[in-house]
Amino acid sequence: MSETSPIERNRFINSLRFPLIMLAIMWGIHLIQFLTGLDFGSLGIYPRKPFGLRGILFCPLIHGDWQHIISNSPPFFVLTVMVFYFYPKVALRSFIMIYLLTGLAVWLFGRNVFHIGASGVIYGLVAFVFWTGIFRRSLRSIVLALVVLFLYSGLFMGIMPNQQQNISWESHLMGALVGIFTAYWYKENIERDEDPPPPSWVEEESSDRPYFLDRDTFDKTRKEREEEQKRNDPDSWFSSHT
After folding, report:
1. pLDDT tens digits, residue range 31-63?
2. Does residue 65 form part of some domain?
3. 30, 155, 196, 238: which one has the fewest Cβ atoms less than 10 Å from its Cβ?
């Protein structure tokens, strides 16, 4: 335990860096809006308009008010840390895919209003963790899927169309679909500690354990065994045939 603790500690610390950087950017932008009175909402995604394409990059970083950013920050942080800690091999690639494809999907299919906020990415991360457990079927991935289902099951109501103009249900729906796609895309990228240990009865071919009979005894015919015995022990063969 003492040997693995520093490794796990470093792994956990590394998994915190990217989420903290992203949160710092989000909160920095919101503080600038608050202190200067500026409104960066026009930098969000505006569907099917060329100027709205810039929102694919900026949309998750911009929030409308304090309640908006406060409600998005905890799930964004927890889910991003979870992905970077448990799936480091694909974490950054998965995050970028969810981030960009969710924005592109909202630009293609969303309502003609400005879409801002990190909720689309959050829904993508929830779907990614849950469906990774379904696709990979490793014990750890299944446990993580159940944890996410328990913690964030209420979020799935947010993918239904609603009449509230200030909620981008399209971002929620597109993020969830992109998360499923991303989980499927990287389902073969198994982490090192996801590989199940070999069964106890499976041994390496190079094992030195002696066998009662030669490994190929039953692959030889009777004639082949008699000829081999003759070569190895001529006296025994002669006495058995006199």
Report:
1. 999 999 999 999 999 999 999 999 999 999 999
2. yes
3. 196
